[in-house]
Amino acid sequence: MPPSDMTEPRRILRRLFDAALAAAAPAKVVPPNLPSPPKGRTLVIGAGKAAGTMAKAVEDHWPEPLSGLVVTRYGHKVPTSRIEVIEASHPVPDAAGAEAARRILDSVKGLSSDDLVLCLMSGGASALLALPAPGIALEDKQAVTRALLRSGATIGEMNCLRKHLSAIKGGRLGVAAAPAKLVTLSISDVPGDDPAVIGSGPTVPDPSTFAEARAILAKYGIAPPASVRTHLEAAREESAKPGDPRLAGTEYRLIATPQASLDAAAALAREMGLSPIVLSDAIEGEAKDVALVHAAIARQVKAGRFLAGDKAIQAPAVILSGGETTVTVKGQGRGGRNAEFLLALGLALGGEPGIHAIACDTDGVDGTEDNAGALWSPDAIDRARAAGIDLRAKLAGNDAYGAFEAMGDLVVTGPTLTNVNDFRAILVLP
Question: At the top level of CATH, which class does the domain 3-22+259-428 belong to?
Fold first, then answer.
């Protein structure tokens, strides 16, 4: 990397983030993974923040007749001509999502073995494809979702609950589509890329149980509405389990993953003269705790003591990681797990010179805010102090958004129309 580029760390970090996004763009990853046209009809269904752009990519590369319906988040719709795109609420489901899920489930019934169901899944599908199990009101499912979002539960735990409160998740959609050929194209947004967790696995077998769902509520001290408690205790109509013959003819294709996006960022880093360190694509845990570990690693790299084998990684270097952290909400501020991670990281670094960072959600929405994430630079503590901003108080009140907004350090992309979870990059300069 030319020395002049070292004076533009924010541009470097944004370029790395953009490379990660480009690797997961539906227009790039959908076409090469499309199946062959069937003898019968082709029905396209799907859900997620990328569902609209995935549907558009199918339309652009599918010469045969097709029809269908997908549901995406408000503000994520793109123009299509043959596949209907409906918008609904995320992360708390709403009536529009419930109606879309009902229509999708009804549409796959009565198909023949000559027909093809092409299911498009991406991050956000669990909330968008919300069809409560019989006896559970949508309002009750919303209440459980809100409680889980504030509890610090992992995405796997949340989706276990969702599957056992649903009439469509946990393989139930796949069962309804039989005997048609079912192919799922999936953009993963979960640590480990488990198809049973992505979108709560509507087209794949589910190994989790009602007992596990009840244990998760107990773990976080969540008292559910009466209808939810009754449904979980009755434990009738379990989700489709591994080995279910009705799912034997299904096919599942992971077409974009967090690791592939980290690999793309690492490749660009090497082109720019940086030594990339990819920690993991599946980091979970409380955002503040994950930040402390990343800060320690960044200091180790700067000191020339981070070893790969018997070789010390020298600055300039960039530490890359993905996954999905959690935030146990105790304050009343505006947060987002990436902003919270970044603020905790910066405070742990204490203005360490030469260490800059970015943390963003690849869907362009950090939590429920209007930013993808934020940027950190070594002068942030001094700038905050000069502006009268108490960064530690902001962190304690879960108001990282407020801190970075006041300093002008938010990253605002708008909807990226894809989602491969969190992206973190820590740039360590000499």
Answer: alpha beta
